[in-house]
Write a structure and sequence with these properties.
- By secondary structure, this protein is of the alpha+beta class.
- The chain is built from four helices and 13 strands.
- It has a single domain, classed as Nucleoside Triphosphate Pyrophosphohydrolase (Alpha-Beta Complex), CATH 3.90.79.
- The model has no long low-confidence stretch (mean pLDDT 91).
- Strands 2, 3, 4, 5, 6, 7, 8 and 9 form an eight-stranded mixed sheet that branches. Strands 1-10-11 form a three-stranded antiparallel sheet.
- It is globular.
Length: 229
């Protein structure tokens, strides 16, 4: 849903979900997340994606790692794609990509991609489980693999694909007051999508806006629904 001339920040906000409950901070800790994925609640997927809006396109299987860095204030590790990429240039994303024939499953693919994109070693990663696949309008069926990342890791981003790597508190995404709905006409269809912008405080510098939207925001919304169920 993006083009070189499209700036999602300019699309008006239709609604903000201040009426929905916030996930309690205790439910965001590593042990609570592990218990929830080990014994999932009954919940309903809210955003399956928009592949149905693109009939006739071949379906390609992909996986992304949703890395939650453990600590007092758990955080989601995200990347900003480089501006020259043909697919989703400059957007904020999870590490991930196509599932290759040599990958054992989605979790294997997601961890491989995280190593190739940002240098995250598998020995720091504990996979909790998968969320339901998110279908993109470009024809990818993306499986989000949620994982804990313990401290002590170092990163080595692939400069061809990744312009930046940063962390956003998980609590930002599990507070629906930060979930903003937008609507626009695109390719003669009415599209509704989410943004979850985060202002990152930096020492001795102006705050940086991390504009999380589109597929990444959709997956985070589904994670919120799973944790709030």
């Amino acid at each position: 849903m993006a083009s070189p001339h499209f700036d999602p920040r300019l699309i008006p906000v239709d609604a903000i979900d201040t009426h929905l409950p916030v996930v309690d901070a205790t439910e965001l800790q590593a042990d609570a997340l592990s218990r929830r994925f080990a014994s999932p609640p009954s919940w309903q997927l809210e955003l399956p994606g928009d592949f149905r809006d693109a009939p006739g396109k071949p379906v390609r299987q992909a996986a992304v790692l949703v890395p939650i860095v453990v600590g007092t204030n758990p955080a989601v590790l995200l990347t900003q794609r480089t501006a020259h990429l043909t697919s989703h240039p400059g957007q904020i994303a999870f590490p991930g990509g196509r599932i290759d024939p040599q990958d054992r499953d989605a979790a294997d693919a997601a961890q491989r991609e995280a190593w190739e994109e940002v240098g995250l070693e598998r020995r720091f990663v504990t996979v909790l489980g998968n969320l339901p696949a998110y279908a993109t309008g470009s024809g990818y069926n993306v499986t989000p693999v949620v994982a804990l990342v313990r401290g002590g890791f170092s990163l080595n981003p692939n400069s061809h694909e990744v312009a930046d790597v940063f962390e956003v508190p998980l609590s930002h995404f599990t507070n629906p007051a930060n979930h903003r709905w937008h609507t626009m006409e695109w390719e003669q269809r009415r599209r509704q999508w989410l943004s979850m912008p985060y202002w990152e405080e930096r020492p001795h510098a102006e705050p940086t806006e991390r504009f999380v939207w589109g597929v990444t925001a959709g997956i985070l919304r589904n994670l919120y629904r799973f944790l709030a169920a």
